[in-house]
Amino acid sequence: MRETFTKSMARNIYYGGAVFFFLLFLALTYDTHQVLPSGDNHEAINEVVALGKKVWEENDCIGCHTLLGEGAYFAPELGNVYTRFGESTDAIKLFIKSRPAKGVPGRRSMPQFNLTDEELEAIAQFLKYVDGIKTARDWPPNIQG
Fold this sequence. Notes:
The chain has 145 residues and is mainly alpha-helical. Strand 1 (66-67) and strand 2 form a beta hairpin. It has two domains: 1-36; 47-131, Cytochrome c-like domain (Cytochrome Bc1 Complex, Chain D, domain 2, Orthogonal Bundle), CATH 1.10.760.10. The model has no long low-confidence stretch (mean pLDDT 85). It has helices at 7-35, 47-58, 81-84, 89-97, 117-131, and strands at residues 66-67, 70-71.
């Protein structure tokens, strides 16, 4: 082995490393696209679902709940709440509507948001839509969320 490190050796290492990592990047990108679920496994977003997402954001639901693993872990995961409630949007609406005005005495719980019937339907449809999303890792891992 040579005692000195020449410019040409450094250049060859630089270009060789760049080519290697570019090929690695392409291989990992290809692998990721093979694992991702197709987008045609659930219905398209409509105006009611979009309104439900807006209600979700305006009331900061993600400040307490998780949705597909993202958000706070204070309250239950809602990625499969439609399935948990017997595939009924009415059950979701009744649960949200039945919250006590000041919460459950003695503990912190979900507040009453006083949503209109239109907003309740929208949030229920949004949660139904989210329940239909097929994730790569089958999230949430169990029916309880």
